[in-house]
Automatic annotation (TrEMBL):
Protein name listed in UniProt: Amidohydrolase-related domain-containing protein
GO molecular-function terms, A-Z: hydrolase activity, acting on carbon-nitrogen (but not peptide) bonds, in cyclic amidines
Source organism per UniProt: Talaromyces rugulosus
Protein origin, superkingdom: Eukaryota
Membrane-crossing residue ranges in chain numbering: none
Pfam families on file: Amidohydro_1
Residue span, Amidohydrolase-related domain: 60-452
Length: 474
């Protein structure tokens, strides 16, 4: 699929908005000839009050989007004919695990390529140019998902950077297949195309095995100098031991600090932490800060909200009481200085049957979940799906500011103001808040990757009339 996406070089995006203190300013963005470095300068057409018609149509340009956590092999199981008998029945977590195991037994190369390409194509269309993508390695799928992940990584490399996670969704230190699962992971993590070691300590059958799972992943990641990424503390049970403490303790014993390595540590889900007291949160933050631990958290709200415990058993007597828990991203950043981002996790499967691959829809959901309606909060939510996400997965160490500055080398998302109704009615969206409060349709967005415009069917016409000074076909 990637080979079918045409691209074009760009000289200048003229008279566009950027995220700026003065939203009435218009800017020109020029691209260096041989790389994606940009020069940002005030537009000659100056400020907005000149020609109202032209000004209201000036597109907003922001840093492109990032998936810090998404599963490449489990996407769009729902909607595929061959899995039509595996749609949710009671929607429980156990059922999702069971149905996914059954689905995995039917995974094959062409099917994985097809669904993976669908996922990446839809993501790129939405504005995503970097992905941390999980592929499972175990006794059921063996190395098939990894091989497909490697092929997707190679085929998309000029348009979307895929950081590959060799992922143990299954236990590696308990259960019937532990030995084979562990052995296959040992092989997979040494593959030079694998960038990240991912495991799921909570699927182990004992706390002891969960601890061993954490210790193995950290030890192997440190030895190979790769990132490590845990699905962890995914429950709302106050009586369960939070494994995050064991992760931090193991990192400390290993000597894994931000100043010692560029390899990073990601903790995903962590819904159990929403039951922490203020003291526990304080202790968590000070442990990370005092010991210089390069730890980030990724909230996965569409999965977390859906997978929260169902009102069964005792709880069924109160079916209207449905506790939900997902990391409070804005509070974690603002009050605790904990590095936190937001990810899609899954689309079209039993863990997350709802939602799309569009990260802006997640930021929009965050406005409600985190009570983040004020413009500065909304801008931070955009950072969490863009610049902060890129830094958290270790692709950049540059600023998380979404206001473009000269020298910016990342990719861009262009948001033209166009009629979305089909009836000739356009409602201009001019600030990042306008975009996050009410995300524009994916088909209206344009994407610049590696300094080149991705040519959707609409791009040449739309951008020729709005912003692009010079496009050369290639
Ligand atoms: Zn996940």
């Amino acid at each position: 699929m990637a080979a079918n996406i045409r691209t074009s070089s760009i000289k200048t995006l003229r008279s566009v908005r950027i995220h700026d203190e003065d939203p009435s300013s218009l800017w020109d963005i020029s691209f260096a000839r041989n790389n994606s470095e940009t020069t940002i300068s005030p537009s000659k057409s100056a400020t907005i009050d000149k020609k109202e018609e032209e000004d209201s149509s000036a597109p907003l340009v922001l840093p492109a989007l990032v998936h810090p956590h998404i599963h490449l092999d489990k996407a769009f199981i729902h909607g595929s004919k061959e899995y039509s008998d595996l749609l949710p029945v009671n929607g429980s977590f156990e059922e999702a695990l069971h149905f996914t195991t059954l689905a995995k037994k039917r995974f094959h190369h062409d099917d994985l390529i097809k669904r993976g390409n669908q996922l990446v194509t839809e993501s790129v269309a939405a504005g995503v140019t970097a992905i941390r993508g999980f592929v499972e390695v175990d006794s059921t799928v063996k190395m098939t998902c990894l091989e497909v992940g490697k092929r997707l990584k190679k085929e998309w490399k000029d348009i979307c950077q895929i950081q590959l996670v060799s992922f143990a969704q299954d236990p590696i230190f308990s259960g019937q297949h532990a030995e084979e699962n562990w052995r296959r992971m040992e092989d997979a993590v040494r593959d030079p195309e694998v960038d990240v070691i991912g495991t799921t300590p909570y699927v182990e059958s004992t706390v002891e095995a969960s601890r061993k799972n954490i210790e193995w992943a950290i030890s192997r990641a440190w030895e190979l100098q790769k990132h490590v990424d845990f699905h962890i503390d995914y429950n709302l049970n106050e009586n369960s031991e939070a494994m995050v403490w064991h992760v931090l303790e193991t990192l400390r014993k290993t000597g894994w600090t931000a100043s010692a390595t560029k390899a990073r540590v990601m903790l995903g889900h962590c819904t159990r932490l929403t039951l922490f007291s203020d003291d526990e949160w304080g202790r968590l933050a000070s442990t990370i800060h005092d010991h210089d631990l390069p730890v980030s958290f990724v909230a996965l709200p569409t999965s977390d909200l859906y997978m929260a415990p169902l009102p069964v058993g005792e709880n069924f007597k109160r079916p209207h009481v449905r506790p939900r828990g997902t990391l409070q991203v804005l509070h974690m950043i603002q009050a605790l200085s904990l590095d936190t981002v937001i990810g899609v996790n899954n689309v079209g499967n039993a863990f997350t049957p709802w939602g799309s691959v569009d990260p802006i829809s997640l930021a929009c959901l965050g406005v409600g979940i985190y009570h983040g309606g004020k413009p500065s909060d909304v801008a931070m939510l955009y950072e969490c799906i863009s610049t902060r996400a890129r830094a958290a997965i270790g692709l950049t160490e540059s600023s998380v500011d979404i206001g473009l500055k000269t020298g910016y080398q990342g990719d861009l998302l262009i948001l033209p103001n166009v009629d979305q109704t089909g009836f000739g009615q356009t409602r201009p969206k001019q600030t990042v808040a306008d975009i996050v409060w009410d995300p524009p349709e994916v088909s209206t967005r344009e994407v610049v990757s590696n300094g080149r415009l991705l040519l959707k069917n609409t791009a040449m016409n739309r951008l020729a009339s709005i912003a692009v000074e010079s496009i050369q076909d290639s």
